[in-house]
């Protein structure tokens, strides 16, 4: 919603280099493999062989065309930074926060290796392990199968570590250092303060780990989270999750600016994924900032923001535009003609969202935003349970989200129509460099 402030276990061998989904499927259909042991979590399960391809799922369209979401190419999984931050934003989201239920440090490390192996396969459009069929009939399949026949759909998987992983039992209920990580908690991984107007639901907040799955096809995103949860059975449990649609921010400024559920363009001044200087300044953790294991990573704030749709829909157009400080059609700031014209903040009401969120009003603070709209039925009072799932990446939460949200929570006219009802913060480590690397390796080394 902030319009201006932001922009080897199985992992021992991750298999062949990335190929297109079509090539992988063809190779799989020629050489179906067999499972060497029962169960993904068992020691010694090899990932080198691809799963049997088989027949594709029936196309969902009735006109003989492919669904739009299945046409997406693969986004590289390996790199200096995790995909899913500065990479282009697909249209669908499945975000999940997890509690770690094991107390065994070695088991947690094994989980992260298992997850990395599976993530590398799924982002290529390949099934997990030995696939959804063709293995031992007596054993559960390695892959749940609902993404068979679908292309990668630009799937990205991004992991983060919550404060409670470093200091507390599962769910943050005590201060015991379960995994010997307390001394490795980054100073920038702070617990967010309570802001005026917050009405946070503990059942939709916090978490030891998070995984953000973004894709053009919602089934691909859901498949990814489902399989990671299945792989982690007995070691983690889902704490809460959120489905999202209709990206509300973009990292590709040359594309059309998306709109939020209030109908206004969102993310006009978002940090561009191609602007290396801005990413280094506002998003990536520098080696000097510390700790060393976070260099090249980022910090993620996730906020579930309920939007009072019914009240907003009975508000006059003039008041709606005054609230945001932009016109609803073009998205131009007050007194300007075009969306990307530099705003003159003093021409806006002191309570306008754009004015309060603008970097010039917050010491130059910026965040890279990847938010999504959501609808989750009704709120029990005959109103839509709908809003914005706000996701923002920054180099330091103390210098970006906290001061901006402090300003907004005190005076933003938009507060009449929104309320923050869920919250979490995570340290997002750097990317997986190569096939021998895994999520969080430097944290545990």
Structural account:
The protein has 445 residues and is of the alpha+beta class. It has a domain at 306-425. The chain is 20% helix and 17% strand. Strands 1, 2, 3, 4, 5, 6, 7, 8 and 9 form a 9-stranded antiparallel sheet that branches. Strand 7 (372-378) and strand 8 form a beta hairpin. Helix 2 (105-122) packs antiparallel against helix 4.
Identify the notable features of this structure and list them briefly.
445 residues; alpha+beta; 9-stranded antiparallel sheet; 10 helices; 9 strands; 20% helix; 17% strand; globular; disordered N terminus
Question: How do the helices and strands line up, and which of them pair or pack?
Answer:
Layout: H1 21-30, E1 92-100, H2 105-122, E2 156-161, H3 163-167, E3 209-215, H4 218-231, E4 236-247, H5 276-282, E5 298-307, H6 309-313, H7 317-324, H8 353-357, E6 368-369, E7 372-378, E8 384-394, H9 401-411, E9 418-428, H10 441-444
Antiparallel strand pairs: 1-3, 1-4, 2-3, 4-7, 5-8, 5-9, 6-8, 7-8
């Amino acid at each position: 919603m902030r319009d201006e402030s932001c922009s080897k276990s199985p992992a021992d061998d991750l298999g062949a280099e990335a190929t297109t989904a079509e090539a992988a499927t063809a190779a799989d259909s020629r050489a179906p493999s067999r499972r060497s042991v029962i169960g993904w979590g068992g020691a010694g399960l090899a990932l080198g062989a691809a799963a049997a391809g088989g027949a594709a799922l029936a196309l969902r369209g009735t006109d003989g065309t492919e669904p739009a979401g299945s046409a997406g190419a693969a986004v590289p999984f390996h790199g200096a930074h995790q995909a899913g931050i500065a990479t282009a934003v697909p249209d669908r989201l499945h975000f999940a926060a997890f509690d770690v239920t094991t107390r065994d440090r070695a088991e947690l490390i094994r989980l992260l290796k298992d997850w990395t192996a599976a993530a590398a396969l799924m982002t290529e459009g390949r099934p997990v392990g030995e696939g959804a069929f063709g293995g031992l009939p007596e054993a559960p399949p390695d892959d749940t199968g609902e993404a068979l026949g679908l292309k990668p759909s630009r799937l990205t998987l991004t992991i983060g570590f919550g404060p409670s992983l470093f200091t507390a039992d599962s769910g943050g209920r005590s201060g015991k250092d379960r995994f010997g990580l307390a001394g490795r908690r980054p100073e920038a991984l702070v617990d967010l303060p309570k802001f005026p107007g917050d009405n946070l639901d503990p059942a939709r907040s916090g978490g030891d780990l998070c995984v953000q799955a973004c894709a053009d096809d919602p089934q691909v995103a859901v498949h990814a989270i489902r399989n990671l949860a299945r792989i982690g059975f007995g070691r983690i449990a889902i704490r809460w999750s959120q489905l999202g649609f209709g990206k509300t921010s973009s990292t590709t400024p040359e594309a059309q600016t998306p709109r939020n559920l209030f109908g206004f363009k969102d993310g006009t001044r978002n940090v561009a994924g191609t602007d290396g200087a801005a990413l280094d300044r506002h998003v990536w953790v520098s080696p000097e900032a510390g700790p060393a294991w976070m260099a090249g990573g980022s910090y993620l704030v996730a906020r579930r923001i309920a939007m009072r749709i019914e009240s907003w829909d009975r508000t006059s157009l003039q008041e709606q535009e005054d609230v945001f400080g932009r016109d609803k059609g073009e998205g131009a700031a007050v007194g300007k003609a075009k969306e990307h014209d530099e705003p003159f903040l003093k021409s806006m009401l002191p309570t306008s969202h754009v004015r309060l969120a603008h970097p010039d009003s917050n010491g130059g603070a910026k965040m890279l935003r990847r938010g999504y709209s959501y609808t989750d039925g009704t709120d029990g009072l005959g109103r839509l349970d709908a809003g914005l799932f706000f996701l923002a990446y920054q180099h330091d939460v103390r210098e970006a989200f906290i001061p901006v949200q402090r300003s907004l929570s005190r005076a933003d006219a938009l507060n009449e129509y929104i309320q923050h009802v869920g919250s979490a913060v995570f340290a997002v480590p750097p990317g997986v460099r190569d096939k021998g690397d895994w999520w969080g390796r430097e944290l545990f080394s």
